[in-house]
Design a protein that fits this description.
The structure is a single chain. This protein starts with 6 loop residues before the first strand and ends in a 19-residue tail after the last strand. With 419 residues, the chain is α/β, with parallel strands linked by helices. The chain has helices at residues 22-32, 57-70, 89-98, 103-106, 132-136, 160-167, 170-184, 186-200, 228-241, 270-273, 316-319, 324-333, 349-357, 389-392, and strands spanning 7-12, 44-49, 74-79, 116-121, 127-131, 139-145, 203-211, 217-223, 250-259, 288-297, 313-315, 344-346, 370-373, 381-385, 398-400. The protein has a six-stranded mixed sheet. The protein has 14 helices and 15 strands. 50% of the residues are buried. The chain is 30% helix and 21% strand. It has two domains: 7-14 and 244-400, no CATH class; 22-241, 3-Layer(aba) Sandwich (Rossmann fold), CATH 3.40.50.11440.
């Protein structure tokens, strides 16, 4: 029997700015822009809602709707999520409902369609598409989280600019823009399409949300169209400064209990695991992880297993949840079939861990540098191998929560849950 590394639980401490009342803060930020001279009584306002598990998103959307109602407008919510939800109206409505965004919870209609209106073309010759309901509204209020992207790095990544291109472009726009990434790069496409929407669509304002490492809303910032790109750029920097990360940069093995679309667009956050596998984009310089094992797929993913290809090893129970239709629709639209590849997989966690550690080279398995996390979204508490303790014991932001113990498996030879 191979001797596995002993593990110890640790807790990381990160900066923790928090917005105490997200709803009131969203309304206050919107009213700060003094939009009453732009919004006339009876005007329709399309409020965007995406497909990610954004903290307090239902409260933020409701507050944005209330702010518009207070101006005498007629707001409604539109899904701005590209091809997600199987690229169907019903699927996208289902995603919003799962996140608590319905007519009952927001107090305004939710209007979904996969139909788009062509606004024109960018200087690169790219057709710019916009959700038909949003295009027909008198105003568009953009609302989204601003954070690092999982496919590229730049001054603008995931946020309001991307939502104008990918999200509001629906399946037709998202597919075209992902194709264009191969020629022009992610940032150029997103900013050129986003700026075209800003100048050719009735964008009223944007509301950017920033989260801390504890999945809490850390900041809310409303912005006018003319200041949107520069403001988002600044908010992205702030987001990265307070984001969670692994405590070390070099590992032989990272064990990820859960992957899924509700965790990251790529199932696992590429910024955390140090792998993008994105055509024509460089791989991150750190962290440097030799092997990655992913054990299970979240129920909220609906079988969408995009990102499984980022791992070297997996388990049978994860592979059995793999839905080809949902996964292929997402990966083909995003031009990333490599991220849907099924890795080497085993019946049990114990088999997978043992075999993964057999592929790291000369380092004996019990001496390997190993970390086990719940998911790339949950990095406060985790288990680290005994070999990492000398490096972590003197860190002010690291709390050692016990003593090294053998890896705990249940009766089916699977890992005992971390939490």
């Amino acid at each position: 029997m191979v001797a596995l590394p002993r593990m110890v639980r640790i807790r990381q401490h990160f900066p923790r700015p928090v917005v105490q009342d997200v709803g009131q803060t969203v309304k206050g930020e919107i009213h700060r822009l003094e939009l009453n001279h732009k919004v006339k009584p009876g005007d329709t306002v399309a409020i965007t809602a995406g497909s990610r598990g954004v903290a307090n998103i239902a409260a933020a959307v409701r507050a944005a709707a209330e702010a518009m109602l207070e101006l005498g407008a007629r707001p409604f919510v539109v899904p701005a999520m590209g091809s997600h939800g199987g690229a169907t109206t019903e699927g996208q409505l289902g995603i919003l409902e799962h996140y608590g965004i319905t007519e009952e919870t927001t107090g305004v209609p939710v209007r979904a369609t996969m139909d788009v209106k062509k606004l024109g073309e960018t200087s690169d010759g790219l057709s710019v598409y916009l959700d038909h309901n949003a295009a027909e509204a008198d105003h568009i209020l953009l609302l989204n989280r601003i954070k690092s992207h999982t496919d590229f790095g730049g001054r603008i990544e995931s946020g309001l600019m991307k939502m104008m291109a990918i999200g509001l472009g629906k399946q037709r726009g998202a597919n075209q823009y992902h194709r264009a990434f191969f020629r022009y790069g992610f940032e150029r496409v997103i900013t050129s399409v986003g700026n075209y929407v800003l100048t050719h669509a009735p964008v009223l304002c944007g509301v950017g949300l920033v989260e801390n490492a504890y999945e809490e809303t850390a900041k809310v910032c409303a912005m006018l169209p003319e200041e949107l790109e520069k403001t988002e750029e600044k908010l992205l920097v702030e987001s990265k400064q307070i984001a969670a990360k692994l405590p070390v940069e070099n590992l032989e093995l990272l064990i990820v209990d859960w992957m899924g679309k509700d965790i990251s667009g790529t199932g696992m956050d590429t910024n955390i695991i140090g792998r993008m596998m994105q055509n024509f984009e460089p791989e991150p310089e750190s962290p440097r992880i030799l092997r990655i094992l992913v054990c299970d797929l979240t129920p909220d993913s609906g079988g969408n297993s995009v990102g499984i290809g980022l791992a070297d090893f997996a388990t049978k129970r994860l592979v059995e949840k793999y839905d080809r239709h949902a996964t292929y629709m997402n990966c083909i639209t995003a031009l990333g079939p490599q991220k849907a590849r099924i890795p080497v997989y085993y019946d049990t966690d114990q088999e997978a861990i043992t075999n993964a550690l057999e592929t790291v080279g000369l380092t004996p398995p019990h001496e390997c540098r190993v970390i086990r996390i719940h998911s790339t979204l949950h990095l406060i508490e985790m288990e680290v191998s005994e070999s990492l303790l000398p490096e972590l014991s003197d860190r002010e932001n690291i709390e050692i929560l016990g003593h090294p113990k053998d890896i705990a498996f249940d009766g089916q030879q699977n890992l005992v849950p971390l939490f």
